[in-house]
Each structure stands twice: as C-alpha cells, then as structure tokens.
Amino acid sequence: MNLPNDAGAARVDDSERGGERKAPRQLSDLQKTITMAQIAKAAGVSQGAISSLLNDRDYGIRVSEKTRERVFKVCREMGYIPNDLRAVVRMYPELGDFCLLLSTSIEGGLLDPFVHRLVAAAMSAVPDESHPLSLAYYGETQDYTAAGTLPHPVRVGTYSKFLIHGTPNASLLEVLFKRGLPVVSLGYEAPLAGLTSLVPDYTQAATLAIEHLVQLGHEHLGIISGPFGSTHPKILELNHGVSVACEKFGLPIESQHIVYGDLSEQAGRAALEEILARQPAPTAIFAMSDRAALGALSLAQARGLQVPGDLSIVGCSDDPGSQTAHPPLTTVHLPAEEMAAQGIREIDRLVNAGAADAPRKESLPVRLVTRSSTGPARKLQKV
Fold first, then answer.
1. Which of 156-160, 357-361, 376-380 has the lowest mean pLDDT?
2. Structure confidence by residue, pLDDT tens digits, 198-223
3. Which among 6, 38, 171, 294 has most CB atoms closer than 10 A?
4. Is residue 273 part of a domain?
5. Would residue 381 count as lying in a domain?
6. 129 and 176: one domain?
7. Using DSSP, how many helices (H) and how many strands (E) does the chain show?
8. Domain range for residue 129?
9. Domain identity same for 238 and 325
10. 171/231 same-domain check
11. Same domain, 209 and 324
12. What is the pTM of this model?
C-alpha cells in the first residue's frame, strides 16, 4: 500500500535527492532512547513502514524513495541508533566501511600491475584507520538479483562506501542504489544514474604517444591495439586517440601497421613479429599497454634490433616494470594513484551529499614519461 506522504504531517521538510546531509557523527553522539513510534509520528508514516526501512525487510509495505529519505532524515536529526549495525550504516552511511569491488574479468587480478597500483593507493588514501579498505570480487555478467549471490561486503550491510574497478554490473549497482548508496567507478564508465566514473583520458594518452613519435621524425608506425572489435571504452578511446593524432599530423591511418591482441606481454611479442614482416617497416611502436610494449621490446632485442636505435617503443600505463626495463620504457602515465585517492575522497563526500540522479564522468589527465626506449627515427635494418 502507499504510505502517507503529506509534507504537512512530517516533522521536517522533504529533502531533495542528493541534498547535503549533516556532518558525519560518531556513534557516541547519538541517542538510543528514541522509539519507532516517535520516529513514525515525526516523519508522518506508519510504524510498519519504519520497521520495514530500519530492518531492511519487506512486510508488504511499499515505501517510496522520497519517504525513505524523509524517514532517514528524521532519524538522523533525532539522533536515533537502531539496534542492528546494518541499520546504523543504512541511516548513517558516513559511519560505514570502504570496499573496493574488483571484476573477476581482469586478467591477473591483484597481480595486474595497474590494479596493484590502484589498490595500494586506495588503501593509503582511506582517511580513518578504524575503517580500512576491504576488497571483494564480482562478476561482470552475473545476475545479482538472485538471493545469496551478492559479494560478501554488499551482503553483510556494514559497508557503505563502494568503489568498483571493472565493467560495472548493473544488477549489483542497483542493489546499492536502492539502499541510497552512491558508487564510484575507477577506470570504467557506465551510463547508470547514481554512478560517478573517474577515468583516465585515454584519448589524450594515445595522442601524446603518437605526437611524441612524430616529433622524433617517425612516419611509419606500428600500433599494438586491444582485441579486434572490442567495445571496451578504454580500447575505443585509445584507438580514437590514434586516429585523431594521425589525422592531426597528416599520417594516413591505413598506412600504419595495426595489430590486435589482448595486450599481454606474449601478445606484444607476437604483434611485433607480425609488424616486422610488413613493408614499409615501421621505425616506432605504440603499444596500448606497458606489458605489450615490454613484450615487443623483448622480441626486438631477440631479433638483434637496437632500441631505440633501430626501433622506438612507447607503452601506456607507467607500471613499475617500465622503469626497470632495459632500456627504461617511454610510456604514458595513467593516473592509477591519483584516481584511487580521488575516488576515496569522492565516495566519502557522496555518502554525505547523496548521489546525483544523472551519471557523472570525470576524465583525469595523463602525461608522457620520456625514457630511453624512444629516439630519432632511423631506417629500420632488414631482419
């Protein structure tokens, strides 16, 4: 049934979705002597609705989002503490814990250098040591509407500050959004209301790499791209950046050697093997990951090519291995550390301000890191 929704019956005015909440409290500031009857009277709803909201149970009472926000606002203003810790977190999300949800589709998981950088930075950025960051995995295509399928931190209900790294799962995010919780996506974008996406500017990354090689006099390039036909936003934007840069500098994109693969080190080796067999031979390579670039570097050296004397190589990520390679790898720095730290600050802000109705994306700047794997163009020796 529909509950009373008359603003005149409520103790407080309805708050707009996304309106600022009061400053975070400590549990010691709250009062536990307030009853559900008092809350129901102040909010202008039935005690059954209050019980349904606070216990997260469906008692056959339909509670609108507007009513839920009004009830929680009344509870917060009265300083009410539910008996259940999960209800405390639903009502005072600023008191909940942080959780970073990682996609099981990311090859290597925590062993992936970029993921390792991201997680380490997120852990360091958590402002309160009493609320450490937890990690959990999720499936990008799994249906989380079925009972018992939710990742543990989502299921237990004591976490309220969720970040996600991987292609967002709409059914999983819907569970969090229904609880009134915002979510920050790190590195991936999805057009879902309530989702804030922080994403490196991949188009700029590819443009910087190509521009650097052109300025060194390279005209014939090899491009090691992601899987053929990929719809992954990162790959699409990197490919777009290559096209933009080639057009800007008058390099016909069809004359460049583009090879597709999974951007692993092995794929980088295989891609360069294929590129070196083509004519005219390229004098420089742009690989859309550091791992693929390091694979290409290894193959080039195995074939007796001097890097950068015979072949310049640029990667994309700036993972630790790029600094210790021989020679050190020129690459585009993707801001994993900056993105993680900003994500922690943003989710901490959003649990107090409330999520926006529309999806929001912020592109983070990238930068070229010039090392010793690139140099002036020279004619590639036949191999």
1. 376-380
2. 999 999 999 999 999 999 999 999 99
3. 294
4. yes
5. no
6. yes
7. 13, 12
8. 94-200+337-364
9. yes
10. no
11. yes
12. 0.81
**Pair (206, 329) in one structural domain:** yes
CATH code of 62's domain: 1.10.260.40
CA nearest to 286, candidates 302, 299, 297: 297
Query: DSSP class of residue 20?
Result: P
- Residue 27 has a pLDDT of 54
Whether residues 142 and 187 share a domain: the answer is: yes
Strand partners, 222: 257, 285
Sheet holding 360-364, edge to edge: 133-138, 97-103, 159-165, 183-186, 195-200, 360-364
Highest mean pLDDT among 49-63, 68-82, 264-278, 344-358: 264-278
The residue count for the chain: 383
Backbone angles phi, psi at 284, to 5 degrees: -155, 155
Those residues with Cβ within 8 angstroms of residue 112's Cβ, 6 or more apart along the chain or in another chain: 106
Question: How confident is the model over 330-350, as a mean pLDDT?
Answer: 96
Among 331, 283, 288, which Cα is nearest to 305's? Answer: 283
Q: With contact defined as beta carbons under 8 Å apart, do 318 and 346 qualify?
A: no
Q: Write the pLDDT tens digit of every residue in 78-93.
A: 888 887 788 888 888 8
pLDDT over 80 (residue 364): yes
Shared domain check, 211 and 326: yes
Cis amide leading into 282 (omega within 30): no
What whole-number distance in Å separates Cα of residue 377 and Cα of residue 168?
42
Token pair for residue 81? 């503490």
pLDDT above 50: residue 18 = no
In this structure, are 64 and 100 located in the same domain?
no
The pLDDT of residue 243: 95
